[in-house]
Specification:
By secondary structure, the protein is of the alpha/beta class. The chain has two domains: about 70 residues, Ribosomal Protein L25, Chain P (Beta Barrel), CATH 2.40.240.20; about 160 residues, 3-Layer(aba) Sandwich (Alpha/beta knot), CATH 3.40.1280. About 30% of the residues lie in helices and about 25% in strands. Strands 6, 7, 8, 9, 10, 11 and 12 form a seven-stranded parallel beta sheet that branches. It has a five-stranded mixed beta sheet with strand order 1-3-4-5-2. Helix 2 links the parallel strand 6 and strand 7. It is elongated, with a radius of gyration of 20 Å. The two termini are about 30 Å apart.
Length: about 240
């Protein structure tokens, strides 16, 4: 049986006997039919992996923490994805794959051409949904940190933030990733299905974002985001 990794928002120490959260309990017992005596890995976002033995499956699922190990899977590049909000499952896919590729945080951005317009009363529910996807992707990809999904913000709010070392895709740019000196921190700004408008690109450049040419072909937003992350990790991270 493959190694099972579960996120739980709990502080752990050796010898602790921990009752798993309901969603973890359901996955372990109802979906995987996990038996007593088997070992799982827990993580809580502190950068460590915790090995735990299942000691009880009656009424609740209880495990005992038996070891702690530093997780060394994080990239040396502090990478933020500022992603314009896209439709439904496409945003879910983007978040999942961006986390697997090692981004540090994800900032959903509302831009001029965004088809999706989140209503105020729906924001918390959507963020909670995206965060669950990110947490699961952290576990699946062997990470032991939590990739924060921030509250959606406008492009202006993003551009007003200092020290972002930002990059924005632009088909008339002359610089590419290979011509830029390796940074330790970066923010990628990616537009929605219809792309960023000329005015938005101009605003981003004026705010200090460097225009960047990704290639000769026009890519869909989800492709552009993941290609950019993968290339940055290859050249600048791990």
């Amino acid at each position: 049986m493959k190694n099972i990794r579960l996120y739980q928002n709990t502080m752990f120490k050796l010898g602790d006997k921990v009752i798993l959260e309901k969603n973890n309990e359901h996955h372990l017992l109802k979906v995987l039919r996990f038996p007593v005596g088997k070992i799982i890995t827990l993580f809580n976002g502190d950068g460590f992996d915790y090995q735990a033995t299942v000691i009880s499956t009656k009424k609740t699922c209880k495990v005992e923490v038996i070891s702690q190990q530093k997780n060394e899977s994080e990239s040396s590049l502090d990478l933020t994805l500022a992603q314009a909000i896209v439709k439904g499952e496409k945003m879910d896919f983007l978040i999942q794959k961006a986390v697997e590729l090692g981004v540090t945080r994800i900032m959903p951005i509302q831009t001029e051409r965004c088809v999706v317009r989140l209503k105020v009363d729906k924001v918390a529910k959507r963020i909670n949904h995206w965060q669950k996807i990110a947490n699961h992707a952290c576990g699946q990809s062997g990470r032991s940190v939590i990739v924060d999904i921030s509250i959606p913000q406008t492009l202006t709010e993003l551009l007003n933030k200092p020290d972002h070392n930002g990059f924005v895709l632009h088909h008339r740019a002359t610089e590419n990733l290979q011509t830029i000196e390796k940074p330790s921190k970066a923010t990628i700004l990616i537009g929605p299905e219809g792309g960023l408008s000329d005015i938005e690109i101009k605003q981003a450049i004026e705010a200090g974002f460097q225009p960047l040419l990704l290639g000769k072909r026009i890519l869909r937003t989800e492709t552009a985001s993941l290609v950019m992350i993968a290339n940055m990790q290859l050249l600048w991270g791990s």
